[in-house]
Each structure stands twice: as C-alpha cells, then as structure tokens.
C-alpha cells in the first residue's frame, strides 16, 4: 500500500514576552486514513479532558498555561520540580472534578505519540496547539528526569533545572 503524504498547517498562537515567533507551524503526517482511525480511541469530555480508551488514561487536553477547547495561550515551560508542583496544584483545584493529576510516565507520553506525524508527533485534533518540543515525565534518575520530544516522538534525559512543557494525566478508576 502506498503511503500518501499529508502536510497540514495549524495555527499556533504563541507570544513570548514581546518577541515575535512564527504563527504557523507545519505538521507532516503520513497516511491520512490511519491518522483518522486513531482518533476513535479518544473520547472528549468537553471539560478540557480526553480519555484514551486504549490505555485507560485521562489526559488534560491542553498543556499547562493553555486554556479553552483549542488550547489558546502560551504553554508554560517549567523546570521539573515546578512541573511536579503544577500537578499537585491541579489536583488540589480538582481540575475537571478530579484530585489525582500527575506527570505521566515516559511510557504514557509515548502512548500518545502519533508515529504517522512529526513536528509535532501527536494528533493535533485531539491535543491542539502542541508544539514540536519536549514534555516532562514523572520518571527521574538524579540529577536528571526523562522527557519525550514531540518533534519526533523520542524519549531522552535532561537536567531537572531545564525547562520543558507539561501535560497532566490521571488513571481511570
């Protein structure tokens, strides 16, 4: 079966404290049929969360710092310890009615990597405005912590003091 290449432009609204950044990011996806079929595994709850029926995880649709159904605003880049604090704060605030938000494991982050896409390697219909950048996981090995690069969908270690984006998850009970 021949793969067709689909290139789509998605509007990304980033504003970095007075600096200008591109307003459009190009995402490349192969095999549109497989990409659309993969969408059926996610259930949107219209409250900022989606459930992955394959992994039985509930994800915040937006990264921390973003808001609304299309994840408007600037996602926050945080050091690892502040990312942990953000998960605690979301739990204390009972985001979407739940008090058990946490940083995902590397394996959980890799479960939402869409191998049909790159730049970013995620389904932007499910997780809008996700940059092709790194997200923290809860896995650590002092002085480092693991993250997943959503440019290409690969895990790596980096210093905890470095800044990464954060998307929170919880287990379904």
TrEMBL record:
Pfam families xrefs: Lcl_C
Residues covered by the Lcl C-terminal domain: 48-170
Q: Superkingdom, according to UniProt? A: Bacteria
InterPro entries in UniProt: Lcl_C (IPR011460)
> Which keywords are on file for this protein?
Signal
The reply on keyword Signal is yes
What's the protein called, per UniProt? Answer: Lcl C-terminal domain-containing protein
N-terminal signal peptide: 1-25
Bilayer-crossing residues are none
């Amino acid at each position: 079966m021949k793969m067709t290449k689909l290139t789509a432009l998605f509007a990304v609204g980033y504003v970095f404290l007075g600096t200008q950044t591109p307003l459009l990011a190009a995402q490349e996806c192969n095999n549109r049929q497989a990409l659309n079929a993969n969408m059926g595994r996610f259930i949107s709850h219209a409250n900022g969360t989606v459930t992955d029926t394959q992994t039985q995880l509930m994800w915040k649709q937006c990264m921390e710092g973003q808001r609304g159904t299309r994840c408007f605003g600037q996602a926050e880049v945080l050091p690892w310890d502040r990312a942990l604090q953000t998960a605690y704060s979301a739990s204390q605030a009972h985001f979407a009615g739940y008090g058990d938000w946490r940083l995902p494991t590397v394996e959980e982050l890799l479960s939402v990597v869409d191998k049909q896409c790159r730049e970013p390697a995620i389904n932007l219909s499910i997780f809008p405005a996700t940059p092709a950048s790194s997200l923290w996981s809860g896995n650590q090995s002092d002085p480092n912590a693991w993250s997943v690069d959503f440019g290409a969908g690969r895990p790596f270690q980096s210093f905890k003091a470095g800044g990464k984006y954060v998307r929170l998850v919880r287990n379904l009970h």
